[in-house]
Amino acid sequence: MQIAQINKLADIQGIACAAHEQTGHQTRHEVETFSDGGVWSTVGVYDRYNERVYHSRVSIEPDGSERRLTGETDGPGTLAEQAVQLAEWIAANRKEVAA
């Protein structure tokens, strides 16, 4: 994993933390590391009934490449796309926009 990827994961974490303030929804950003050097960045947003209303997952491969997970047909393919899509979801679902 490259320094730029670590920084982008921190950016996503910050966006996820801001999501609750702006939307009222519970937000999770999980980073899973694997013994082969791979990493998953997973974002989930949940409503008050703990139902998932937004989900994205990006894989950072051991060689540093980024991709959508096998079997997932939509969603971001890079960390940069994951950050942008989460920010766009938040903007569309702000408390004042939803009201």
Question: Can you offer a commentary on this structure?
Answer:
The model has no long low-confidence stretch (mean pLDDT 91). The longest helix is centred in the first third of the chain and has 21 residues, at 3-23. Helix content is 39%, strand content 28%. It is elongated, with a radius of gyration of 14 Å. It has helices spanning 3-23, 79-92, 95-98, and strands at residues 26-33, 39-46, 52-60, 66-68. By secondary structure, the chain is of the alpha+beta class. The chain starts with a helix and ends with a helix. It has a 4-stranded antiparallel beta sheet with strand order 1-2-3-4, with helices on one face.
Provide the fold topology:
Elements: H1 3-23, E1 26-33, E2 39-46, E3 52-60, E4 66-68, H2 79-92, H3 95-98
Antiparallel strand pairs: 1-2, 2-3, 3-4
- What is the percentage of strand-forming residues? 25-35%
Q: Please list the strands of the largest sheet in the order they lie side by side.
A: 1-2-3-4
Order of helices and strands: HEEEEHH
- In total, the number of strands is 4
What value does the Rg take, in angstroms? 14 Å
Average pLDDT level: 91
Q: Give the low-pLDDT segments.
A: none
Secondary-structure-based class equals: alpha+beta
Helical residues, percent: 25-40%
The profile of the biggest β sheet is: 4 strands, antiparallel
